[in-house]
Each structure stands twice: as C-alpha cells, then as structure tokens.
TrEMBL record:
Full protein name: gibberellin 3beta-dioxygenase
UniProt source species: Canavalia gladiata (Sword bean)
Keyword Ribosomal protein: no
Record key words, sorted: Dioxygenase, Iron, Metal-binding, Oxidoreductase
One Pfam family this sequence matches: 2OG-FeII_Oxy
Taxonomic placement: Eukaryota, Viridiplantae, Streptophyta, Embryophyta, Tracheophyta
Length: 367
C-alpha cells in the first residue's frame, strides 16, 4: 500500500516559496492583499455551529443532524486530556516562534508532504495567505532533530501521543457519524473486526496565523473543503475559523476552551452519498493575537475504494459519485481543487441537487 508521503510525491503541488518573516512586516505587502474580501461574518447570528457533548446518550443522533445540516460540529467531553491539548499547542508555539532561517531548514519540498511551508492550496489563489504551517506525516523525529538538536524528544513524544489519541477519537467519531446513517461496523470492512479504524491514515497539520497589520485585507486560509473523511481541529482561544452555511453565509466557529471542531471531509461526503456536506471553511486573521490550530486530517487507508455506501443507494437514490481511493482523490484535488468533487460525480449538478434533497428526506428514515 502506498504511504501518504508517496501519494503526495505523485501529486506535487508547486507553491512558489516566498520567505515571509511575518513579524518584521509593518504593512501588508501587495502579494498578501486580497481585494473584495468580505470579512464580516453573520454577526446577528441566530444559529451557530452545533456543540455536542460526547457523553450525551443522544450523541449519535445529534451528530447525524449536525453533519446533515452543517457538515461541522464541535465536541466537548471528548475524553482528550486538556494537558495533551495544551502540550500540542506548546509544540506549535515553540515551532512557529523559531527564527525564520531555522524553520526553513525543514521546509516542505514541492513533492513532499511533511515539513514547514505555505498552505498547499496556495497554488490555486493569486494572493498569498497570512499563514505558516508545519505538516507531520508519520514520525516527526528527523525534522524535530534538526529544529531542536538537544531537546527534540519531548516534542516528538507529545506529537506521537497526540496522534495516537486522535486516532482513537477519530474512530469513535466515525462510527457515531455513520451510525446515524444506518451504517454499522460490519458494513465497513476496512474498519477492522472490532471497528477501531486502526488502518486509517492521517496527517497532523500545525497552523499559525501571525499577528497581521491589516487583517481586513488579508486571508489566513482561503475557502476550501478538506479532502478527508473527517478532520479534528483544535484551535486556541482566538477566533478566525469560519464555516459557510447555505442561506447564512460565513459563520464564525466560536472557540470553546478545550473543545474540538469536527469537519465532514469530501470522502465522507462521497461515502454518505451526498447526505453529509463537506463543510466549506476559511480562516481570517487578527491584528493583535497570533492564532494557532492543530488539524488531524483523517482518511481511509490510501488504497481503499470509497464510494456511496450500498445502504444509501437505491433506484430512487442513485450513487452520486464513482468510487475513488484517497490516493486518487488527492490527485483530483491537486488538479481541480474546488472542482474535485464534481470531477468524480456521476450525476449532473441539476440531478444532484434534486437527488440530494430527496436523499435528505429519505435519510431521516434510515437514521
Ligand atoms: O486553522 C483552522 O482553524 C483551520 C485549518 C484548516 O482548515 C486545515 O488545516 O485544513
Ligand atoms: Fe481545512
């Protein structure tokens, strides 16, 4: 089975590597200035992203509803020790506060997945983002050894522990999300005999949005959906993440102390036959505070075919997508970006609109 790093190697993304030292810039350079940027979120919000207590006996139903209506929710009482969440933020903080020349020692190469650099989606936008990131795929040992020759093991231990803990949570959330669609552990063979999703692959993405001199004209991370099954995001207490909801526009995801944001990714959208929308999201930046986040981007083993699940397909609900591996889908994303889902769609957009609303009605019965 190809590793995720091999997958990325076959789909290089060419991002021109500028060398911004964000802290030294007093003015927003032209290359970072986004025009027509609507930074106002829906201020008079009657609705906000659902918050779900994982200890609630109705958690699966609530999660199913959140996935169908928002494609995103926040969880509390998720069982991840707050100490570990603080520690992973500390790793991010230590990394991004290193001098620029240090960080560039571990710069991500165009065909690599791991390392320091701009957002991979930068190549699809004419302007740069007020953002720096560090991607971890597998062990961070080699890079951390370069960054902290004396002190790497503590940072490595935290990352490995975070990774393991997130894997377990991702498995738990995956079943809760599938359960409300009527899909059981027996229905997903690659989930393992006990359904622990041990074979799932994942990437850990540390994100930093430095203090910005002109936040109304800058973009932290441009609008995108994740190419995952699901993403588990830990954000520090600084707001900036926004999700797009039909009819409401951009809605800020209010940070909850030690809460986690769960995104439906494109592959879960496919698996659910369009019932769960993969959430469009973006990040805005801040004049006075640095924002940090940690995304656990979780997908299936890279060679497993993902397709609309048989239980969600019928003559009245035809499959909306053909089957794809994560490997193949990442290739489609690298080529088509926001058109990647359409590139694997079987039904025309008009039919899809009709079919999705039909599917939504039917799903109430399935769940
Ligand atoms: O920083 C955030 O809140 C979002 C990060 C994100 O969307 C990503 O890493 O894919
Ligand atoms: Fe994302």
């Amino acid at each position: 089975m190809p590793s995720l790093s091999e997958v990325y190697r076959t789909h290089p993304v060419h991002v021109q590597h500028k060398d911004p030292d964000f802290n030294s810039l007093q003015e927003l350079p032209e290359s970072y200035t986004w025009t027509h940027l609507d930074t106002n979120s829906n201020c008079v919000m009657k609705e906000s992203v659902p918050v779900i207590d994982l200890n609630d006996p109705n958690a699966s139903k609530l999660i199913g509803h959140a996935c169908k209506t928002w494609g995103v929710y926040q969880v509390v009482n998720h069982g991840i020790p707050t100490r570990l969440l603080d520690e992973i933020q500390w790793v991010g903080q230590s990394l991004f506060s290193l001098p620029s020349h240090q960080k560039h020692k571990v710069a991500r190469s165009p065909d690599g997945v791991a390392g320091y650099g701009l957002a991979r989606l930068s190549s699809f936008f004419p302007k740069l983002m007020w953002y720096e990131g560090f991607t971890i795929a597998g062990s961070p040992l080699e890079h951390f050894h370069q960054l902290w020759p004396q002190n790497y093991s503590k940072h490595c231990d935290i990352v490995m522990q975070y990774d393991e803990t997130m894997k377990n949570l991702a498995g738990k959330l995956m079943w809760l999300m599938l359960d409300s669609l009527g899909i059981t552990k027996e229905d997903i063979k690659w989930g393992g005999s006990k359904g622990q999703f041990k074979k799932a692959s994942a990437v850990l993405q540390l994100n930093s949005y430095p203090i910005c001199p002109d936040p109304d004209r800058a973009m932290g991370l441009a609008p995108h959906t994740d190419s995952t099954l699901l993403t588990i995001l830990y954000q520090n207490n600084i707001s900036g993440l926004q999700v797009h909801k039909e009819g409401l526009g951009w809605v800020t995801v209010q940070p909850l102390s030690h809460g986690l944001v769960i995104n439906v990714g494109d592959l879960l959208h496919i698996l659910s036959n369009g019932l769960y929308p993969s959430v469009l999201h973006r990040v805005l930046v801040n004049r006075t505070r640095q924002r940090l986040s940690v995304a656990y981007l979780c997908g299936p083993p890279s060679n497993v075919e993902i397709c609309p699940h048989a239980k969600l397909v019928s003559p009245s609900q035809p499959p909306l997508y053909r089957s794809v591996t994560w490997n193949e889908y990442l290739g489609a994303k690298a080529k088509h970006f926001d058109k990647a889902l359409s590139s694997v769609r079987l039904c025309s957009p008009i039919n899809e609109l009709f079919d999705v609303s039909e599917a939504h009605k039917n799903s109430v019965q399935v769940g």
